[in-house]
Amino acid sequence: MTIKISFGLRGENSPFMGFIGVSSTGQSSPSSIVSVDSISASVSVANTNGVNIINNTIGENQDVVAYELHNVDYRDFRGDNNSSFTSAESVADYINTEIQLITENIILRYTKLPNTVGILTVAQNVQFQYKVPDPGIISLFWDENTIPPGVDISHYDNRIVQGTITTIGDYYLEYDKTNATGITTSTLHIEVI
Q1: Domain encompassing residue 38
Q2: Each residue of 151-168: pLDDT tens digit?
Q3: How many Cα atoms within 13 Å fall on the side-chain side of residue 170?
Q4: What are 135-148's pLDDT values in tens digits?
Q5: Are 104 and 173 a contacting pair, CB within 8 Å?
Q6: Residue 143: count of CB within 10 angstroms of its CB
Q7: What's the number of domains the chain is made of?
Q8: What CATH number should be reported for the domain holding residue 155?
Q9: pLDDT of 25 higher than 70
């Protein structure tokens, strides 16, 4: 018997996590899916092989500890990709890390993106590759009129600029990045020396 740790329909972009299945002792989560800002995971004090999934929202309102799952053996859990775990601590770490990543991802998607100027220094006649950092970016569109000769955008990942510039100078590539709050224009300054 296993309990699969799963995410909402949008995967790590979803604000929900689920604990689907039944443990070897017959436990199952009373909530098929819970908000990631409501839960946390820990190793059981009574049993170092046990994992507790705590529902912080219910517990804080009633001044008690409310468990989604209590003291479930770590061997009963499976990750989202159906992987097994090596210890109770690895299960708790996995769940808490995923909660943190999901929370940060959601916050970034709903935070206005800043106008930025990235600076990249490359040598003349030397091939380079640069990937625009993408915290919170849903899509990115380059202004093709600002791309110098010898430089192109990857066909597989439009965050990657690559190529070889043959003329020393400064080049300013402009791009629009979007998230749930709208569109922001940014610039990549390429200095060729």
Answers
A1: 3-109
A2: 999 888 888 999 999 999
A3: 6
A4: 667 788 899 999 99
A5: no
A6: 13
A7: 2
A8: 2.60.40.10
A9: yes
Which of residues 74, 92, 109 is at a domain's end? 109
Element containing residue 92 per DSSP (H, E): helix 88-109
**What's at 15, amino acid-wise?**
P
Q: Are residues 156 and 92 in the same domain?
A: no
| Structural domain ending residue among the three candidates 53, 78, 109 | 109
**Single-letter residue type at 96:** N
The 3-state DSSP class for residue 132 equals coil
**Same domain? 130 vs 185:** yes
Residue spans of beta strands (DSSP E) within 103-156: 117-122, 128-131, 139-142, 151-153
Kindly state whether residues 26 and 89 are assigned to the same domain: yes
Within 10 Å of residue 21's Cβ, how many Cβ atoms?
A: 17
pLDDT in tens, 33-61: 777 778 889 999 989 999 999 888 765 55
Residues 83 and 126 in one domain: no
DSSP assignments along 165-180, one per residue? --S-EEEEEEEEEEET
Number of H helices and E strands in the chain, helices first, is: 2, 14
pTM equals 0.55
Straight-line distance from the first to the last Cα atom of the chain, in angstroms, rounded to the nearest whole number: 62
